[in-house]
Design brief:
Blueprint: H1 2-40, H2 52-63, H3 72-88, H4 90-101, H5 110-139, H6 151-162, H7 171-181, H8 185-212, H9 220-249, H10 259-270, H11 279-304
Helix pairs in contact: 1-2, 1-3, 1-11, 3-5, 4-5, 5-6, 5-8, 6-7, 8-9, 9-10, 9-11
Amino acid sequence: MTNNRENSQYALKFAGAALSNMAASAATNPLDIVKVRQQLRTQLPGARSNAFWTVGVEMARTEGVLSLMKGFSASMLRELAYSGMRLGSYEYFKDVLYDQSRGALSREGIGLKVAAATIASAIGSAVANPTDLVKVRMQAYYPDGGPYKNMRHAFATIWKEGAAPTTASGPSSMLGGLRALYRGVNPTTVRGIVLSVSQICSYDQVKQVLKRRNLMQEGVGLHFVASMVAGLVCSITSNPVDVVKVRLMNDSEREFRGVSDCVRSIMTREGPLAFYKGFGMCWARLGLHTVLTFVVFERLRFLFGVGAL
C-alpha cells in the first residue's frame, strides 16, 4: 500500500514538473529563439548587431512577429520529456540515494542534492536530445526560408541527413539516422547537468536556508525569492555550454569534428567572451522560466496533494 502511494506521488511530481516547465517555456519561447539566434552568430564580441533587442526587432520585421514562436511544438515536446525527468524525478533519486547510503548522506546536505540532480538531468537530457535538436534547427535563421514545414517534417529531414545513401533501409541507415538526431548529445547532457544542478539545488538550498533561519515561510513569496536566485545561478553556469550545444546542433554542414573542436574554434575566432553570447537574453529567458517553473510547480503540487519541494 505504501509503495503504491509513493509511486503515485512520484507520478504526480513528474506530471507537475512537465506541466510547469511547458507553461514556462510557452511564455518564454520568444526570448529563447532570440537567444539561439544570438548564439549562432559568429561576429566579433561586442558587435551591436548581436544585441538581443536588435535581433528581436530584426526577426519581427523580416520574418514576421510569429517567427518569435518558431520551434514551439518541439519545445513543448522537449519539456515533457526533459523537464519531466530532470525535475520530476529529482526527489525520487534523493530518496533512493539516501536509502542506499544508509544515512551517510544527509537529507539537508548539498551532496545528496547534487547527486540526485545529476542523475535525473543526465537521463532526461540524453533521452530528450532529439527534441532539443529539432527545436534548435527550427529556431535557426535560414536566408532562403525555413526548410521545415513542421516538427514531424524536421524530425524526418534530420533523420535522412544521417541515413546511409542507399535505397534499402537497414541497420546502417537506422544507426545513421539516430546519430543525426543525437548530434550534440554530449554538450546537451553536460548542459542539462550543469543547469539542473545549479538551478534545482540552489532553489532547494535557498528555500531550506530561508526557512531554517525563520526569514520566510513556505508560500509564494519564498518560492519567488528562491527561484530568482536559482535563475541567476543557472544562467551564469550554463550559458557557455549552451553556446557550444547550439553551434553543434545547428552544424548540418559538419564544420566541427566534436565538442573540443567547437570550443577551440569559438575561442580562436571569437574570443572567450563568445561563450557568453546571448547572456542577457539567456538570463531574461532562464530567469523568467525558472521563476514561472517553480512557482507553478509548487502550486500544482499543492493542488495534487503533494508536499512542497
